[in-house]
Amino acid sequence: MGMSNVPAYIHLARACMIIACIIGIANLILIFLAYVRKSDPVWIQMAGLTLCLSVGCVLTATLWFGAKVEQYSRMADTDYFSFGYSIILGWVSIPLVVIGGALLTIKYET
Predict the structure, then answer these.
(1) What is the pTM of this model?
(2) 23 close to 50: Cβ distance less than 8 angstroms
(3) pLDDT at residue 71 greater than cutoff 80
(4) Residue 65, C-beta contacts closer than 8 angstroms, at least 6 positions apart
(5) SS3 80
(6) Alpha carbons 9 and 13: distance in angstroms, whole number
(7) Which of 38, 44, 70, 109 is placed for a possible disulfide with 34 were both Cys, Cβ 3.0 to 4.6 Å?
């Protein structure tokens, strides 16, 4: 199966998840820099904001993928569709990362 046969919503979900992973790596670097430079809380606030930005990407991917899988299963006239464990992990991670980003941003306010 080539990449041209894959529906566009899967490409969108995949791209959003990859962008969220890249932002997460940048977030780890920001947190490391924040703990190296203990006098400057701006790095920790930036890390909290990047966490919230990555949640936007994960939310977009999980919403779009879930809606499109349901739509395509209705068009195929079948009652069965499976989201798999990835969509469940996406929905569980969203509130946890929002709480973590909010705590990082609020805790180090000056």
Answers:
(1) 0.74
(2) yes
(3) no
(4) 9, 10, 13, 83, 87
(5) coil
(6) 6
(7) 44
Q: Which residues contact 57 (CB under 8 A, 6 or more apart)?
A: 16, 17, 19, 20, 23
**Cβ neighbours of 96 (radius 10 Å):** 10
d(CA 96, CA 100): 6
3-state SS string over 19-51? HHHHHHHHHHHHHHHHHHCCCCCHHHHHHHHHH
CB 64 within 8 A of CB 17: no
pLDDT for res 81: 63
27-64 residue pLDDT tens: 888 888 877 777 677 778 888 888 888 998 888 888 88
Residues in the chain, how many? 110
pLDDT at 19: 94
pLDDT at 45: 80
What gap in Å lies between CA 73 and CA 76, rounded to an integer? 5
